[in-house]
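FAQ
Q: What does a multi-component entry look like?
A: The components come first, one per line:
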Amino acid sequence: MIRIGIVGYGNVGRGAESAVLQSEDMVLTGIFTRRAPESIHPQRDDTPVYPISRLEEPGAEVDVLLLCGGSATDLPLQTPELAHRYCVVDTFDTHARIPEHFANVDAAAKEGATAAIISTGWDPGLFSLMRILGTSVLPEGTGDTFWGPGVSQGHSDAVRRIEGVADARQYTIPVQKTMQAVRKGESGFTARDKHTREVYVVLKEGADPQRVAQEIITMPNYFDAYDTTVHFISADEMAAEHAAMPHGGFVIRSGRLGAARQYDSLMEFKLELDSNPMFTGAVMAAFGRACHRLHEQGRRGCFTAFDVPLGLLSPLSAEELRGKLL
Amino acid sequence: MIRIGIVGYGNVGRGAESAVLQSEDMVLTGIFTRRAPESIHPQRDDTPVYPISRLEEPGAEVDVLLLCGGSATDLPLQTPELAHRYCVVDTFDTHARIPEHFANVDAAAKEGATAAIISTGWDPGLFSLMRILGTSVLPEGTGDTFWGPGVSQGHSDAVRRIEGVADARQYTIPVQKTMQAVRKGESGFTARDKHTREVYVVLKEGADPQRVAQEIITMPNYFDAYDTTVHFISADEMAAEHAAMPHGGFVIRSGRLGAARQYDSLMEFKLELDSNPMFTGAVMAAFGRACHRLHEQGRRGCFTAFDVPLGLLSPLSAEELRGKLL
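Then the predicted structure of the entire assembly, as tokens:
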């Protein structure tokens, strides 16, 4: 059994917990939190909950830690720090800082003789794998990634920071017409061509809806480059209809093969998820298995999804995989 | 530059040739054939064509051989034999014999200190990778692979062997209704539920269409477990409308996550190919690159798609990949 520890018990932490409990070759040996341990209620009563400082003491019964904190402030420090002592998997997704994060974690893991896999989840993660397959098999072609329909936490948070907004939920919607054009090999699309944004807002009493709507649709980077629709709803409607965190998306690669480039080839990967954090946790758990195995093979340092043979994600042996899934 | 040799110049060999010529980090150093070399007309006049026996002589300028023969009789002998002296990639797809083929190639490659990747292409190959991702991330769930719409060579050949048949082309069609049910997590479908078969037949003069149709639809294994439709057409229609070799398919995985298994998650991969052999050749070329790199890393023996980190498929460096595609 692979002994898994979960660091951070937010939505992704709960997703990782569920996934570990669904995995027959894993045991959840602890949840490690910055909150008061007694305030945490794990899915199973017998799962130990520890203060995160426990990981500094010797003797933690952990083969791999799944780090479920945020990319903005938690993971840049936490992943290298913990990689000194543990095999770790994270979901670091601040794209511009991946080279720096990789270097930090790689140095720590090599010093600590551990293995770390960063930037797992579905994007980065599974979608990255699809982009590699697409561009490697069809080097002459076009392709794009579309996200949604789904809730963007970052955009929802940005709207919540506007004065007069009590609550908000932002859905990113891929534009079907543009997806169809990408499938046919067209390219050169703008942000506005690719996605629309739908915002559901609960106003504070007395707030001016017109001013709030205007502040949303003109917000730089977040909304001004998109066609955005704002809907004002009640707190009850928000609770009843927008509590879930669905997400998903598409990775499309369209290429041309043959001496005259006469053979169109389309590769497309789709995710449709009722719960973004649950699925993210499930991907982390699978990479946790791979991380443990890389370490057992003597591999040390930092890895990404690109470095992991996919057979290591499965609980089945190499022989079983060749017999059943090849 | 990776020096690639192609063994066998049928449809897949021509696909591999096209793909190698599209790859900026590869050079095609030879086509090796059992036919008379002068009967082969490569895409570029300056591509050398050799008798296959040339590979027994020392000094062949080849880093990796792409073996483009058939699984029935060519590859079971050719892959282990050539793996003694060369890094090789094949598309062996006789499922029941993969363990035996793997063992033979592994022994040969270890003796010869080479690296071999067997059973590449899209199924086995890319579809196998999708099956591993699906079952590893969503262990509780159902899933299935659907093929087509596309031409099945094996089924077309089987019809051509019937007395009175001058030519035949068989299309495998996935049943949309069943695909939709699999996406929703249903399972337990039969062969008949999943695919229908459409056969286009050119009769020899005087042949009885009713007898031929009956022989087709009752043919054990090939057709009797499916709903099959037979169309009789002229040789001109066959040449005009059925010369292409389109194919494709779907790998669907539907799983449930969360404490109460309340979160549906759908992963789906689709291929739509104007030309099955061209795409197969393109996948082989990418695995040829990976094979060369595994060998450069000191890896020896037989591998499958499950053992290959996907980053090795791309001409980009690990740093570039982390920066651009992660």
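Q: Is there any commentary attached?
A: Sometimes. For this entry: Chain A has a mean pLDDT of 97.
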